[in-house]
Amino acid sequence: MTKLIFTTALTLTAALLFAQQPTLRWTPDNPQPGTAVQVTFDPAGSKLQEPFTLCIFDFAENKPVATEIPFAEKKGKFTVTYTTGKNTRSVSMAVKCGEKWENNNGAGYFLKMSQANGKPVPGALAAETALYRDWGGPFELDRNVEIALKQYDAAFAAEPALRTEFLESYLRVLMANVRGDEGKAAALKIVDEVAQQPGLTENNLKTLIRLYDRLGSAEKAKTTREKAIAQNPNGWAARDLRRKSMLEQADINTKIAMLEAFHKEFPNLDEDETNEMNRIWSGTLRNLGSNNRWEDLERCAALTTPSVAASAYNSFAWNLAEKEIDIPRALQMAQKACDWTAADIKTARPASQLPSEWNTNMNYTLGSYSDTYAYALGKKGDTKAALEWQKKAVDIFKGENEEINERYTTLLETANAPMLEKELEHFIVSNHATPVMKEQYQAVLLKTMDGTKVAKKMADLEATAQANKRLELVNSMLDKKAPAFALKDLEGKEVTLESMAGKIVVVDFWATWCGPCKASFPGMQKTVDKYKSNPDIAFVFVDTWENVADKEAAVSKFITEKGYSFHVLMDNDNKVVGNYGVSGIPTKFIIGKDGKIRFKSVGFSGSDDALVEELSIMIGILQAM
After folding, report:
1. 275-295 pLDDT, tens digit each
2. What pLDDT digit, counting tens, does each position of 388-447 carry?
């Protein structure tokens, strides 16, 4: 029955891939700031799954405020009411549909606030552009750099003063469009122009200092910093200078004294400065723990944020438990890391982060720390408590973290738990079992079954697991036109997406400095080898975000030394990676024969076999279409 359901579901899902698109509407069409907006979502025919949640970024200045509102259903239509802020200039929206986004096919939905006369409020278009480019990641928007540049240019043409306010964001977009020395020169020219303007605020000067630093103009950064410090001797520029001094301080005791004095003088910093201080505190805590200065570590941990302290405590707890040194301390530190993180989930969300995104990320952190606590409890010999905390970690990760699953089933075996066989079978069927767990399962079966029956049982489970994975992937399929590209390979030949029309194309974004990218390459080589004789399947490895002078030479050296047979394309100006909306690498896009992105895969799980299997299933699905 199960297999029949899988087959039927696959057929139906494939047939409905091109179903009717959902619609999102709102009234009034052009709301004024501080007014209520009724938003209606009609998912009819789209096959999107509930629950439906309206996710919002409301931009007034600097950073948007993130909000989520569940839709209320009435006669098949879903509505919410949202009241914009009194100073709102633009609002971006998307609908979270279970695990998928309805985001207007990557373009996003935007409300530009209007004045009483119907014209947009000042800065509406610039705010919309910032939402699209800088804050479009959570909504999985395209974040196309060419579109963003055109919109910024149009906004500044209408309101020239906006360029100063949105300078940092604008120059990121400019330099993504115009790379190399030309882009740097263009950016520096604009920064110089802004620096000459009268009446610059402390925040304006802060932006100029940061930009001059990034553009390598040390003298201009120094001059601007001096101007800012003269304007406000205890302001951001002065504090930043002190932070630089702390970072450069080699003596740990002197650095701690500087940090403590700074904290006493400036106990209440904004989010950005707190994050900058956290980077210094993080390195300091690592130094103290590595040298077993536990009392100093505890004192300094109290002066930083709970998240930084918890990260350090968790790391040292794992190391102590792994080496079986001072298990009581390991337990104490692991428990504190869990307690701090659990409290942070409830109280520390930044206003600009979506609640669901915050909760997911922080819960995963709590899951990792629970795993550490369970590990330390196991080293102590408290199997019962270790199982309780390990199960928490498994549940938080929804049983999808194979390493955590393996530690859980190992504890179950140690405890002679009766549910061991059932739990192992569940992990195998859901494709989240390690080779060790599969061997563990076979050993359990061999206690009551002969080898032939065990082999058949395993084969049946593996077949069911593959069917489940296939169904999961079919249900995650995308329907989005792949952005065109024209890039040169390492031989200098131009390769376009158009030249591969009619083929299934796997586009893998990577860089030579990216650890997960390089870790995934043995699995990618196996996948390339598997399909090397199939002319209808193409693999291109798009090198991007490189930070070396001679990118081609560095990439060619890496590929040659490793012996990979990859077709590498060079995204030297980072335009293609921007047009594909990539926010982290490795990211793979699997493009169908119709030129549409059908699958997107981010990161690397650590398993070559799992990578080959997943890509093979994706390719098989597209071959059948």
Report:
1. 999 999 999 999 999 999 999
2. 999 999 999 999 898 999 999 999 999 999 999 999 999 999 989 999 999 999 999 999
CA distance 522 to 189: 45
| CA-CA-CA-CA torsion sign (488, 493, 494, 496) | negative
Q: Determine which helix (DSSP H) or strand (DSSP E) holds 483, and give its type and residue range.
A: none
In the Cβ-directed half-sphere of 67, how many Cα atoms lie within 13 Å?
A: 18
Integer CA distances (angstroms), 95 to 60, 67, 74, 79, 224, in order: 21, 12, 17, 11, 44
Nearest to 614 by CA among 437, 457, 478, 468: 468
Calculate ∠ Cα 312-357-46, nearest 5°: 155
Distance CA 505, CA 540 (A): 8
- Confirm if 367 and 393 have CB atoms less than 8 A apart: yes
Burial call 303-324: b when 16+ CB within 10 Å, e when fewer: bbbbbbbbbbbbbbbbebbeee
Size of the chain, expressed as the number of residues it contains: 625
* Separation between Cα atoms, residue 298 and residue 161, nearest integer Å: 48
Listed residue (101, 97, 156) closest to 127, CA to CA: 156
Alpha carbon distances (Å) from 470 to 477, 536, 546, 607, 616:
11, 21, 35, 18, 10
User: By the 8 A CB rule, do 373 and 335 touch?
Assistant: yes
Q: Which residue has the tokens 């199982």?
A: 387
Residue 17 banded pLDDT, cuts 50, 70, 90: very low
DSSP three-state, residue 426: helix
For residue 602, how many other CB atoms are within 10 A of its CB?
Answer: 13
**CB of 407 within 8 A of CB of 379?**
no
Helices 402-414 and 383-396 pack at an angle, to 10 degrees, of: 150
How far is residue 512's CA from residue 545's CA, in Å, rounded to a whole number? 9
3-class SS at 549? Answer: coil
Q: Per DSSP, what are the bridge partners of residue 597? A: 480, 591
Instruction: Tell me the pairing of strands 486-489 and 100-102.
Output: unpaired
Terminal-residue alpha carbon distance, the chain = 25
Contact call for residues 469 and 613 (beta carbons, < 8 A):
yes
pLDDT in tens, 284-327: 999 999 999 999 999 999 999 999 999 999 999 999 999 999 99
- DSSP character string of 368-423: HHHHHHHHHHHHHT-HHHHHHHHHHHHHHTTT--HHHHHHHHHHHHHTT-TTHHHH
**CB-count exposure of residue 440 (10 Å: 0-12, 13-18, 19+):** buried
What is the spatial distance between Cα 413 and Cα 403, in angstroms, rounded to a whole number?
A: 16
DSSP-derived 3-state class of residue 209: helix
